[in-house]
Design brief:
Number of strands: 4
CATH architecture: 3-Layer(aba) Sandwich
Structural class: alpha/beta
Strand order of the largest sheet: 2-1-3-4
Strand content: 5-15%
CATH class: Alpha Beta
Distance between the termini: 24 Å
CATH topology: Rossmann fold
Largest sheet: 4 strands, parallel
Radius of gyration: 16 Å
Shape: globular
Number of helices: 6
Order of helices and strands: EHEHEHEHHH
Length: 191
């Protein structure tokens, strides 16, 4: 990531299987670009032959804010989970308010998906209205001077000896994991 000079104002995180909602994501990106903001959308902003994972990691780290397009199946994507989790942890460090950098659009008729978010984001002020997001994000972006990489690393920590592993059977505990994170953070156990 060293030497990478482009700074994105906003990184849009969305589930690729969103079908018709993809046009909404494109419209959001185009609207913000027309207003002078740099927006990263992994649909079109990855060059041929570039590593998708490295490009996403680099561009997310070099972004000032994250917009989550929270469809019902958003949390079934490991990439989406990584984007949200890494940015949330970085934005939450040092007593910062992650809602200053993470915006949520919930296109669903229900608030069920909001319950899977970290506790600090469940009542996100932009959770339901696309119009509000388009109006408020530019105001918020003007107040943010640094990128996520300035807040802390977004990648997994280096391991020595045994590598980190995951299990496809250890699933369905997202709500509990966020609750545990918030509880430990409240008592200063996470820094």
């Amino acid at each position: 990531m060293e030497g990478y000079m482009i700074k994105n104002d906003l990184f849009i995180s969305y589930r690729h299987s969103i079908g018709d909602d993809l046009n909404v994501v494109r419209d959001i990106a185009n609207h913000l670009r027309q207003n002078g903001f740099e927006v990263f959308v992994d649909e079109s902003d990855i060059e041929n032959f570039d590593s998708i994972t490295q490009t996403i990691e680099r561009d997310l780290a070099n972004s000032r804010a994250l917009l989550v397009y929270l469809t019902k199946d958003y949390f079934s994507s490991r990439a989406c989970l990584w984007e949200l989790t890494s940015v949330f942890i970085a934005a939450n460090k040092g007593g910062r308010n992650p809602r200053d950098r993470i915006f949520i659009i919930n296109p669903s008729d229900t608030t069920e998906s909001l319950g899977q978010l970290p506790v600090e984001l469940q009542d996100a002020k932009y959770a339901l209205s696309l119009e509000t997001v388009l109006k408020e994000i530019p105001k918020c972006l003007c107040k943010i001077n640094d990128t996520f990489q300035n807040l802390g690393p977004l990648s997994f920590p280096k391991t020595y000896g045994r590598n980190l592993t995951s299990s496809p059977r250890f699933v369905g505990r997202l709500r509990e994991m966020w609750d545990l994170h918030s509880y430990l953070n409240e008592f200063g156990c996470i820094w």
